[in-house]
Amino acid sequence: MKRNALKFKEDNILCYRCVINASKAISHIPTVEEFSIDINTKVIEVIYKNNRISKEEIRDIINDSITSGKVRIILN
What we know:
One of its GO terms (molecular function) is metal ion binding. By secondary structure, this protein is an alpha+beta fold. The chain has 2 helices and 3 strands, in the order βαββα. The protein has helices at 16-27, 55-68; strands at 3-9, 32-38, 43-49. The longest helix is centred in the last third of the chain and has 14 residues, at 55-68. The two termini are 16 Å apart.
């Protein structure tokens, strides 16, 4: 299965709590294989497989978790 990469700047990352919330959200996306979050540059990189979820959906899930403090659960 093809691996996809997503790299973007998330300006809402303001503190380590934001990083924790984003990490929790990303880890709940079933197709994610690896990710990294740099608090200094506010850059998030996600490696995932599967085309059932779009890059926009992943960004929205991460942004929602940062701004709301809640993790959205994605089921296969």
